[in-house]
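Good morning,

Attaching, inline, the backbone tokens for the sequence recovery test we're adding to the shared suite. The designed sequence is right after.
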């Protein structure tokens, strides 16, 4: 009973902190600018570069396939302020002295940024809804594709806030996150350009977020990819808590 009560109080504190972070973000014009950029990016890429109508195929695979590329720019913008701004203004020391655990602080930052990413992803539902009048799309497949997009966003956000905790300012956090996300998103393209041993190709694919998202983009729920995203997300969050512990006792 005591454990349950402690967990409940911890979740309430985390939710309160996340709500404050989200409230602040929703009052920032930058958030809406990012949302507009994301919607325009995936839509233009899908309709014009992928030429959806010319393909004459009732599939949204190419639409969701643009998400990893868009996240390279969108996620760093959402996470760059998470810890870098706190560090610049000196408020991170204040947070660390307050009665919050490292997991509560990290969890709040994560949930606030993920909520924004989830909002952007949800707004793209206008695309499949409008196209449903032109063809027969499978609801289960679209649901799986959106679930994969949310898992991909969660993993990218957890990595982004980890890198923000290591950066000295927002610019460094953005550039660092963008470069690292570009690497983990596009590294699976390397075997297509260079002939490598199968063992190395398997390692490269395993490290690629885009590779693990491919099954979801096809509407397939692979337990291995699901486990990868969940474990990776918690690993990055754990490393973030350890970075805070190190800073507290530094």
């Amino acid at each position: 009973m005591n454990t349950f009560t402690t967990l409940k109080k911890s979740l309430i504190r985390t939710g309160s902190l996340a709500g404050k972070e989200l409230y602040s973000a929703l009052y920032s014009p930058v958030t809406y600018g990012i949302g507009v950029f994301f919607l325009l990016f995936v839509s233009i890429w899908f309709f014009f570069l992928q030429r959806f109508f010319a393909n004459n195929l009732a599939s949204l695979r190419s639409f969701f396939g643009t998400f990893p590329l868009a996240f390279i720019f969108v996620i760093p913008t959402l996470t760059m302020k998470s810890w870098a701004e706190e560090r610049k203004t000196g408020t991170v020391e204040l947070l660390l002295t307050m009665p919050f655990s490292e997991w509560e602080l990290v969890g709040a930052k994560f949930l606030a940024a993920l909520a924004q990413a989830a909002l952007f992803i949800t707004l793209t539902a206008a695309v499949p809804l409008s196209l449903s009048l032109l063809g027969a799309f499978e609801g289960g497949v679209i649901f799986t594709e959106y679930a994969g997009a949310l898992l991909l966003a969660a993993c990218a956000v957890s990595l982004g806030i980890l890198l923000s905790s290591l950066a000295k300012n927002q610019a460094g956090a953005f550039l660092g996150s963008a470069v690292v996300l570009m690497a983990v998103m596009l590294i699976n393209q390397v075997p297509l350009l260079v002939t490598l041993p199968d063992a190395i190709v398997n390692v490269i694919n395993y490290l690629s977020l885009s590779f693990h998202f491919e099954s979801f983009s096809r509407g397939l729920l692979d337990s291995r990819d699901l486990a990868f995203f969940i474990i990776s997300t918690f690993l990055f969050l754990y490393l973030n808590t350890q970075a805070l512990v190190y800073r507290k006792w530094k």
